[in-house]
Amino acid sequence: MSTSKNKNHISETFIIPTDVMLEIAQIILQADLPHEIIGVKENKSQLILDISYQPDLKFHQQAIKNITDILKDYHELYCEEHEETNWREG
Hints:
This protein is of the alpha+beta class. It has two helices and four strands, in the order ββαββα. Helices cover 48% and strands 32% of the residues. Helix 1 packs antiparallel against helix 2 (58-89).
């Protein structure tokens, strides 16, 4: 995830697994966050999304926090599943 500032907006780049894209898209649309798909990692089923927000708007801050939390939870679950799978195969 990278961050850049543009006027009153901060722009962050997120790598989003397609498994959680619908949840994240819903957050983006509900908070009316400017966004752009800037890349695709087909072999990993991921989208690279640039999302802009105004840091002084509470609902924008909450939307970004929700997106970050979903990605963190997904990553933790995904890693745990692979650790269990590797452990069982070993």
